[in-house]
Amino acid sequence: MLDSTALIAWARRTSPYVDAVIWSRAGHAGYIVPVVTTAPALATALAQIPGKDVPVLEALLAMDISVVDALTPGNAPGVAEVLHTAGPFAAEALTAASVVHAAHRRSLPVVTSNPFPLTRLREVEIDLIP
User: Fold this and answer.
1) Over the stretch 54-105, which tens digit does the pLDDT of each residue have?
2) Alpha carbons 46 and 52: distance in angstroms, whole number
3) The whole model's pTM is what?
4) Three-state secondary structure along the chain?
C-alpha cells in the first residue's frame, strides 16, 4: 500500500527504498504481486509533483502490478468510519483515511515517509521509508 508520500518519492526518484519496494513486486515471473494505492492518495501526489515528474508516476500506474483503490459509494462508509476520528479536520484527512481503510481491507502495510496522519486515525502497519 503506497500513500501519497511514497507516490511522490517514486515520481521524483528520491527514494531507493520506494524503488526497491516497487521493483521487488515487478520482478515476480508468472504472477502479480500488486502495488496498491488509493485514488485520493494519487490525486494528492499529482497535486504536489512538478509536471516533469508526472510521466514517471503514470509509468507506475501503467504497470500490471499497479492497483488504484477507488473511493466508491460501496467503500465510502468504511473510509468514513476511519475518517470519523478526524473530526473537524475530516477534509484534510480524507487521503489518509482512504489509505488506512484500504490497507486494513487488503491486510497490507503502508509505505510512507510520514506515518502520523495515518496512525492518528487508526492503528495500521507502517513500512517507513528510510
Assistant:
1) 999 999 999 999 999 999 999 999 999 988 888 877 777 888 999 999 999 9
2) 11
3) 0.80
4) CECHHHHHHHHHCCCHHHHHHHHHHHCCCCCCCCEEEEHHHHHHHHHHCCHHHHHHHHHHHHCCCEEEECCCCCCHHHHHHHHHHHHHHHHHHHHHHHHHHHHHHHCCCEEECCCHHHHCCCCCCEEECC
Please report where in the chains the cell 494528492 appears, as a residue: 44
Q: Residue 118: CB partners within 8 Å, gap ≥ 6?
A: 3, 96, 99, 100, 110, 112, 124, 126
In angstroms, how far is CA 37 from the centroid of its own chain?
4
Q: Please, are residues 93 and 117 in contact by the beta-carbon 8 Å criterion?
A: yes
Query: What does the block give as the cell for 25?
Result: 513486486
Can you tell me the distance from the alpha carbon of 60 to that of 116, in angstroms, rounded to the nearest whole number?
A: 25
pLDDT of 90: 77
107-119 confidence digits (pLDDT tens): 999 999 999 999 9
Alpha-carbon distance of 42 to 55, in angstroms, equals 13
